[in-house]
Amino acid sequence: YTEAWDADKKSIHVMPDTPDILLAKANAANVSNKLYVQAWEEAKKKGYDMRADAIPIKTAKASRDIASDYKYKETHEKEKGHYIGCPSAKDDPKLAQAARAMALQNDRLYKKAYNDSKTQIHIPVDAMSVQAAKECQTLVSDIDYRQYLHQWTCLPDQNDVIHARQAYDLQSDNVYKSDLEWLRGIGWLTEGSVDVVKAKKAQELLNDRLYRTRPEQLKFTSITDSPDVVLAKTNAMQLSDV
């Protein structure tokens, strides 16, 4: 049935001068990297002739001399120490201005008057602020706050002593964890724990076998003369190679 169609699929011929083929060839030539750089490669093979007195070479040399740090500072290095018209450095207005700006920016000179005046402050011993500071120091002092009582002893069978011991035992970490000591080393099975039961319930919920019933497990009887069954049989007879 499909033999003629299969043979026809293999016998497709496209003419080489069709518009699609010509357009594909033109696109291939446009996007070809080899054709794109072909002229440049041929120009490189011919070589070049660059003379020393060419304008680009002179421009490059001039730009290099301008950008050179040595050429840039050559005139300044020659003029160092040749001050004309000033008998000393203090008479030069530029140096005097620089020294003045340095003195204004100097932090030590800026704070010199303040540091000298800090040591010339005198406070009377009976000033209100001094008295208040002494009283505050007395209040927050640990020596004056704590006044240790005399050493005294009590009988071990007194009620307050027994009650204090019971309170210490309740607060003691060793007594608090004593019930845990006998549990150390005892084996325990995870079967029946909360996490295991939770995992089993989650597995039952995600189990595809319990969630879905397979068709072969359902008991049913197909009707042989139903329209869809009759149509299927007819189609099978028409498509049968026999």
Overview of the structural elements:
- The chain has about 240 residues and is mainly α.
- It has a domain at about 10-45.
- Helix content is about 60%, strand content about 0%.
- The protein is built from 17 helices and no strands.
- The chain has helices spanning about 5-10, 20-30, 35, 40-45, 55-65, 70-80, 95-105, 105-110, 110-120, 130-140, 140-145, 160-170, 175, 180, 195-205, 210, 225-240.
- The radius of gyration is 54 Å and the shape is flat.
- The mean pLDDT is about 80.
Summarize the structure.
The protein is mostly helical and 242 residues long.
What structural keywords apply?
mainly alpha; 242 residues
List the helices and strands and how they pair.
Blueprint: H1 3-9, H2 19-31, H3 33-36, H4 38-46, H5 55-67, H6 69-79, H7 93-105, H8 107-110, H9 112-118, H10 128-140, H11 142-145, H12 159-171, H13 173-176, H14 178-181, H15 194-206, H16 208-211, H17 227-239
Count of runs of 4 or more consecutive helical residues: 17
Overall, the morphology is flat
Determine the N-to-C terminus distance. 12 Å
Low-confidence stretches: none
